[in-house]
Amino acid sequence: MIDLHSHVLPGLDDGPRDVAGSLEILDAAAADGIATIAATPHVTDEYPTTADAMEAALVEVQALGHAVRVLPGAELDIRSAAELDDTTLRRFGLGGNPRLLLLETPYYGWPLDLADIVFGFQARGFTLVLAHPERNRDVADDPERLRPLVERGVAMQLTASAVDGRLGRRAQKTAHTLIERGLAQLIASDAHTAAIRAIGMRDAVGTLADDGLGRWLTEDVPAALLAGEQLPSRPTTRRTMHLPWHR
Q1: 102: how many CB neighbours lie within 10 A of its CB?
Q2: What CATH number corresponds to the domain at position 228?
Q3: 120 within domain boundaries
Q4: pLDDT tens digits, 52-72
Q5: Of 234, 186, 191, 207, which Cα lies nearest the Cα of 1?
Q6: Which of 63, 177, 183, 190 is deepest in the core (most CB within 10 A)?
Q7: What digits encode the pLDDT tens for the residues 76-108?
């Protein structure tokens, strides 16, 4: 599997404090069946991670020589990222793809100008992934608000711990609603430590009733995004989950 959202780099945000913590995450990722992981530290007012700091920490973690391949990236605050120049944004390119950005969905409220912000990034030549929309209350109340963005080519990334229920029933139900309606394109761990928001991608896939859909969300789509290719067609499924509200 390919994990395109993690906080594996040490000392930059609310992820691990040191390289030993990074190693614990990588070990957990390997045990979960992940071959490639993108290091995506927060770039926000609270955690103003610079591209230099991200790249230096990435070199430190890559020097561990772990079997899990670690790629660059960032989880960018939507508004502050729009103010960054193209060169800086390319350095934060998700998985090393300089035209691919991971933007953080706010947990509360829905930016009324989000469509304009997205258009601005796309006009500058960037492809976007929106992180964990299932954890936003406005999305939970109205999942269809994501459809115009998906139709514009924005990929929606679900958090594994929401899909498998560790973040609660509301987040899980929203995540699976998005999958059922074709409004989610990939699952990632958003791992901060080996214990907090742990990897769990295998468990998330296990809640789906279709192995092909699981591969599409955790292998096929992430691989296409990294390569800058058109997303593969979603496999046809009859039901996407094994959950109580579907019995």
Answers
A1: 26
A2: 3.20.20.140
A3: yes
A4: 999 999 999 999 999 999 999
A5: 186
A6: 190
A7: 999 999 999 999 999 999 999 999 999 999 988
